[in-house]
Design a protein that fits this description.
Layout (H helix, E strand, L loop, with lengths): L7 H14 L11 H11 L7 E3 L6 H9 L3 E3 L1
Parallel strand pairs: 1-2
Helix pairs in contact: 2-3
């Protein structure tokens, strides 16, 4: 933290250590949870015509990644 959060070496080291801690080959940082949710839904193959359950009372960032992929958020 002394060198700042966006230092390339810090990010690389954190990703490797996080992956190792969870016994995974890779770990990828994202700038926020909206981006992480978007990548997760994309990896799951969510797309046009799919329905994704979201909480009835939530923040827009929960539904936005669903709509980015032309899927339908359902509460």
């Amino acid at each position: 933290m002394r060198n700042g959060w966006y230092n390339y070496n810090y990010e690389e080291a954190f990703q490797k250590e996080f992956a190792a801690y969870h016994n995974r080959k890779y770990g990828i940082m994202t700038p926020n949870c909206t981006t992480a949710t978007h990548l997760l839904l994309k990896a799951l193959g969510i797309g046009d015509g799919d329905e994704v359950l979201i909480p009835e009372c939530t923040w827009i960032a929960t539904a936005a990644p669903v709509t980015y992929l032309s899927a339908t958020p359902v509460d």
